[in-house]
């Protein structure tokens, strides 16, 4: 995860770590390298620039030039700023409501169906919840099938309506079904498309209005970097979602999405997906991720 970024940041900070004394010139050089590492990780130029400016201000404010171990202090400042960049505090999901309704949004292939299953499994095992999964992709029967396979795998009921082409109706019926059958969490998996389009946005927005979810999650493939951020913005403009799920962090992802999304949409990353299996889900902790990045 973020190997290239870790390596480059380590290299950038290493120069300072080795020096007993540092000066404004090598701080500036270090920060230039830090900025380059962020840009290589596909972090937006403005965000990278702002990041290094903040680090510089903090470093100067803390008298990094005269402190006993300036290298370590710089590492700490960079780590703190990375944590802030990724959202600062850990933010959980809202499990209020009776039942709790969780709506998944995102492009096709982002990992919505897989994550719906993972979240159902997570809530079932960790929080002893009775979960109902809902298949709303009325365009691709294969998608409903996939959800059914996932449901069987984790022992969670899947609600679908064969032949019904109206996802709003299906979602509403599913909530009624949940109430009648003692389920206290309803996870609605929706149809995605390969790119943002008006039809998809109208549909998800209609479902959103009809079910008034306690939690709307935007699922995005972290491998898509800057595109992930642009897609997040498009979905947030329509849904004003509550949180982000970054999937495929087990792959060779550069880190740009994780580092930029919070600044752009001002919504926390709540979960990450780290594999195809049902247990490959983690609550996102910005501080732990920053620790991991800086080793
Ligand atoms: P959807 O179209 O948004 O519902 O996406 P899917 O859930 O079908 O996922 C698309 C592909 O990505 C599938 O092959 C999944 O197995 C895979 N996938 C989903 N999440 C992850 C993840 O966290 N890591 C990896 N490596 N693959 C994932």
Architecture overview:
The chain is of the alpha/beta class and 295 residues long. The chain is built from eleven helices and eight strands. Helix 1 (3-18) runs antiparallel to helix 2, helix 3 (45-61) packs across helix 4 (70-85) and helix 7 packs parallel to helix 8. The protein binds guanosine-5'-diphosphate. Guanosine-5'-diphosphate binds at residues 106, 108-114, 146, 192, 247-248, 250-251, 273-276, 280. One of its GO terms (molecular function) is GTP binding. Its EC number is 3.6.5.4. GTP binds at residues 106-113, 189-193, 247-250. Belongs to the GTP-binding SRP family. SRP54 subfamily.
Keywords:
about 300 residues; alpha/beta; eight-stranded mixed β-sheet; 11 helices; 8 strands; elongated; binds guanosine-5'-diphosphate
Chain-wise SSE layout:
Blueprint (H helix, E strand, L loop, with lengths): L2 H16 L5 H17 L4 H17 L8 H16 L14 E6 L6 H15 L4 E5 L5 H14 L2 E3 L7 H14 L4 E5 L8 H14 L3 E7 L3 H15 L3 E5 L8 H10 L3 E5 L7 E3 L2 H9 L1
Helix pairs in contact: 1-2, 1-4, 2-3, 3-4, 4-11, 5-6, 7-8, 9-10
The structure holds guanosine-5'-diphosphate.
Low-confidence runs: none
Number of strands: 8
Strand content: 5-15%
Distance between the termini: 12 Å
What does the main sheet amount to? 8 strands, mixed
Question: Radius of gyration, Cα only, in angstroms?
Answer: 21 Å
Helical coverage, percent range: 40-55%
User: Which hetero compounds are present in the coordinates?
Assistant: guanosine-5'-diphosphate
Overall geometric form = elongated
Average pLDDT figure: 92
Number of helices: 11
Strand order of the largest sheet: 3-2-4-1-5-6-7-8
Which class of secondary structure composition applies to the elements?
A: alpha/beta
Catalytic activity: GTP + H2O = GDP + phosphate + H(+)
Subcellular location: Cytoplasm
Keywords: Coiled coil, Cytoplasm, GTP-binding, Hydrolase, Nucleotide-binding, Ribonucleoprotein, RNA-binding, Signal recognition particle
Family: Belongs to the GTP-binding SRP family. SRP54 subfamily.
């Amino acid at each position: 995860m973020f190997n290239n970024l870790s390596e480059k940041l380590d290299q950038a900070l290493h120069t300072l770590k080795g020096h007993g004394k540092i000066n404004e010139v090598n701080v500036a050089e270090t920060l230039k390298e830090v900025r380059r590492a962020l840009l290589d990780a596909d972090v937006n130029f403005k965000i990278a620039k702002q990041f290094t400016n903040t680090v510089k201000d903090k470093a100067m404010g803390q008298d990094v030039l005269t402190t006993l171990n300036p290298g370590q202090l710089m590492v700490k400042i960079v780590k703190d700023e990375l944590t802030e960049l990724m959202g600062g505090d850990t933010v959980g999901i809202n499990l209020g409501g009776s039942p709790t309704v969780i709506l998944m949004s995102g492009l096709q292939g982002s990992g919505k169906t897989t994550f719906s299953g993972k979240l159902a499994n997570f809530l079932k095992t960790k929080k002893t919840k009775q979960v109902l999964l809902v298949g709303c992709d009325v365009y691709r029967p294969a998608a409903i099938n996939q959800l059914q396979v996932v449901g069987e795998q984790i022992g969670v009921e899947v609600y679908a309506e064969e032949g019904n082409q109206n996802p709003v109706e299906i979602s509403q019926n599913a909530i009624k079904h949940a109430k009648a059958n003692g389920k206290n969490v309803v996870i609605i998996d929706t149809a995605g498309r390969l790119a943002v389009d008006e039809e998809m946005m109208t549909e998800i927005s209609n479902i959103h209005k009809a079910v008034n979810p306690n939690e709307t999650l935007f699922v995005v493939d972290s491998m898509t970097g800057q595109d992930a951020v642009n897609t997040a913005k498009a979905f947030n403009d329509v849904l004003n979602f509550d949180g982000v799920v970054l999937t495929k962090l087990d792959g060779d992802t550069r880190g740009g999405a994780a580092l930029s999304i919070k600044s752009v949409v001002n919504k926390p990353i709540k979960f990450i997906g780290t594999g195809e299996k049902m247990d490959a889900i983690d609550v996102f902790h910005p501080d732990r991720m920053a620790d991991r990045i800086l080793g």
